Request: fold
Amino acid sequence: MKTRLLAAVLAVFALLGLAGFVANQVVGFDNSAGAICVYDKASTPSCAAMGMIDSVNHWYIAKTGVDNNTQLAAIAVSSTWSGFAVERKGFATVGDGGRATYIYATSACSMNAGAGDGGSQVAATAGGCWLASFGGGPVDHRAFCGSAKSDYTACINAALATEPDVLLSPGQWHVTDKVTCPSGKKFHGNGKYTSILQVGNAGGNDFNMVATGVVHLGTPSVQPGCDFDAIGITFVQPDTTVRANLIPYPPAIEVIDQPETTIGVGDGVRIAAAWQCIDLTGNSGRSVLGRIECGAFAKGLEIDGSLGFVHVVSFAESPYGMTVNQIAVYGDGTNIGIEQGRCDGCNYGLVSLFETSFNATANNVRSAGTNIANLQLDANEANLNWTAGLGQIVNLYSSKGNTSVHNALAVSGGNLSISQVRFASSSTVPDILVSGGTLNLQGGIHADFANGTPAVSVTGGLLKLANMVYQVNSNVARTAPIVKQATPGILDLSNSIVLTAMGTGSGNFVDIGNDVPGNRLSGLNGRGWGYNLPFVTSNGFYDIETSFALSNSSCAPTFATPGDFSAGTVTASGEYFRKGNTVQFNLSCTFHPTFTTAAGAFSMPTGLPTPLDANTAVSLGAFSNVSYLAGNLITAEIQSTNAAVVPRLLASNAALRNLGTSNVRSGSAPVFRVSGSYRVK
Reply:
């Protein structure tokens, strides 16, 4: 019987990892003293009330471990315990997440002047130190504090200081100061919606407001940085509609001047009701951001100073974790989703911004280039402001209502290229505004329902649009063109069409406010919508392939010395067709002249579509009520000084001369039909 019992005891110890005990010793738990004792069968028990004891040989079958840190520290250890293992079932209470196995060492704990940290090292009251053996996997942060604390800052930092991979368990864990994850370590949770760091509480803000961030990733000058993933960070904010009443907490994640850091590469990271989500300033090159959900009142992501590539797989800015009142502050037009300064190669996959802006600042001029695969700008306050640097966007989407006062896309400097756009807007300002730099947009659909505002405006720099489809209201009177150019901007618009042909509406497709070198219109189909072009001597190239009706104002007959000449009732009809810098026109003009003192050469009209660059011959068609010598021919030329057609009489035996008052007589009703073709430059 004794042999079988001894074998059973040793088997239990072997299962528990208590291999350091000799055959005649067992571990006993003194329920009255709250201590663990070594019980030797050949000696008097060192602890009272040992429980199940063999009364003959004093053998004791031990409990399988201790309940908490207090019991672990109180074990009556001796030098013979070196290497012995004991299981702790909880930090403060059984099942509080602090379960771990500890190995006894006779030397004092190396941390905190021998006091240990309560997690990786637990100081033994009798001397020596219990060293945690976590098994090589992720270490639950509760091993350092359990789950009944009001502030988990110290215990999370203690875990991160000693363990290479720390797990933030499911739940909300309140912190009051910066949590630091050193370089080369991992700080992961069970999911961004379940493992939450909570900043602030219902009683008010208790966070250290001078901290550089809630979570600091990396150790200066040590690469790679920390790997942070599957964790949420939520901030407690007042339920208010007033921005000044919100708490301007430090950034949720701070990675200042720390290259090779990874954030949210896996399950992702969710940040709710922050003031700023991520501070990635300084040299943060070669960092990777995976799936980031950011709800910030002031700024989502800031990048400035990176000397290497930064990769962002997915960044969504939205009012995560905010109340209805707080959302009103979030969308007040001052919120920045992404602010990018210097970044020597920033690559974004999907960027989705709700009511916030993407700002490429002046510091971006030092960047090697920015690439965005998909940029989504949702709602009135969402916009892209490009100030400097090189950028390329594959797909850009924007939607705006009729109360928006922000351009969806504003370029004031740098060079930005976009492959495809999809805009839907009835904004009070142009969706696209170029005031400097260069915007090269190569295609897409632009639905514009703001009849009093241009969809596109260039006032400076260069705007190059190609392969665009514009959709507008077909039966309204537009008071602003669809595309507008003004000094000193340059417009190059080609191969584009207004999808909705003009019905009962009116207005212009393109308005050229000032003719400048570089302006170019070609391959356009306005579908009935007009063109307002600078019909003066042309510096630009306007190949619009469109005809325009001529009216009475296009016919202005007169004499070189008008005197008392009156044209009377004037009627005119006709059209002109412009292709590039060539104008073709046909005009029929009837008037009822009266005069007594008029003299000199007769000319008409002075209202041709555009002046020409030199005298150009035109043709006079059939006419009536004009007197001239039989056998004479009538020809004409346009005088560039006043855009007048000057008819000339050519007799077979006489020199070319102008028609005069003897040909066009007072009281008659002459009809001139004129057609011509000429260049304007």
In short: The first helix runs from residue 2 to 15. The helical segments are 2-15, 69-74, 153-162, 324-330. DSSP finds four helices and 50 strands in the chain.
